[in-house]
Amino acid sequence: MKLQTLRRTGALATAAITLSVGLAACGSDDSSSTASDDTSSSSSSAPSEETSPSEDAGMTDAAADTYGPACGDIPTDDSAASFSGMAAEPVATAASANPLLSTLVEAVGVAGLGDALNSAEALTVFAPANPAFEAMDQATLEAAMKDPKLLGTVLSHHVVPERISPDQLSGEFETLAGDKLTIEGEGEEATIGTEGATVLCGNVQTANATVYIIDTVLMPAM
């Protein structure tokens, strides 16, 4: 956000001097008071060059409750890839800017799930980071990436149609795939699914979802 600086013009300074001279016969205190009032009024109307406290708070709040070793890989500026940038966008759009999720974003595109994820009212997404896909059997991954229906089922198993905070993680949740996802433990202690996936960066907020970036691709029961 660019802020404009209001400069005092030479005309204002000249007017203040003229007014002071014209009122000198009435007493120096009056002229001094008038000039001071003019200067104070001009100064108070000038916008500040500093970032507003509310903007600073917004950037800070987006990252305040995140946790996990990979959170340090998220940019700390106000770019689209930062916590504040992702918080302003729906989940599929936000993920597309995240440097940890490029393979997942590609898979979402193949499965045609982007619009459905972006238009949902409230979601929790357990998002496998790039290394999670790299750890898979590559022949299996390549086959899945050519099968939108299969890929859609697998990815939907990672999504719960409600927001889940870290202290609510423990339990059994129905996924968009129509099956169940079991989570044991809360917050940093949580393990997700039968694979026992752990959280790399948790409680990442987007405009319509809470995201937990995890270290393993979860497989639904086929």
Automatic annotation (TrEMBL):
<dbReference type="GO" id="GO:0007155">
    <property type="term" value="P:cell adhesion"/>
</dbReference>
<dbReference type="GO" id="GO:0031012">
    <property type="term" value="C:extracellular matrix"/>
</dbReference>
<feature type="compositionally biased region" description="Low complexity">
    <location>
        <begin position="28"/>
        <end position="57"/>
    </location>
</feature>
<keyword id="KW-0732">Signal</keyword>
<feature type="signal peptide">
    <location>
        <begin position="1"/>
        <end position="24"/>
    </location>
</feature>
<dbReference type="InterPro" id="IPR036378">
    <property type="entry name" value="FAS1_dom_sf"/>
</dbReference>
<dbReference type="GO" id="GO:0050839">
    <property type="term" value="F:cell adhesion molecule binding"/>
</dbReference>
<dbReference type="InterPro" id="IPR050904">
    <property type="entry name" value="Adhesion/Biosynth-related"/>
</dbReference>
<feature type="region of interest" description="Disordered">
    <location>
        <begin position="26"/>
        <end position="71"/>
    </location>
</feature>
<dbReference type="GO" id="GO:0030198">
    <property type="term" value="P:extracellular matrix organization"/>
</dbReference>
<protein>
    <submittedName>
        <fullName>Uncaracterized surface protein containing fasciclin (FAS1) repeats</fullName>
    </submittedName>
</protein>
<dbReference type="Pfam" id="PF02469">
    <property type="entry name" value="Fasciclin"/>
</dbReference>
<dbReference type="InterPro" id="IPR000782">
    <property type="entry name" value="FAS1_domain"/>
</dbReference>
<dbReference type="GO" id="GO:0005615">
    <property type="term" value="C:extracellular space"/>
</dbReference>
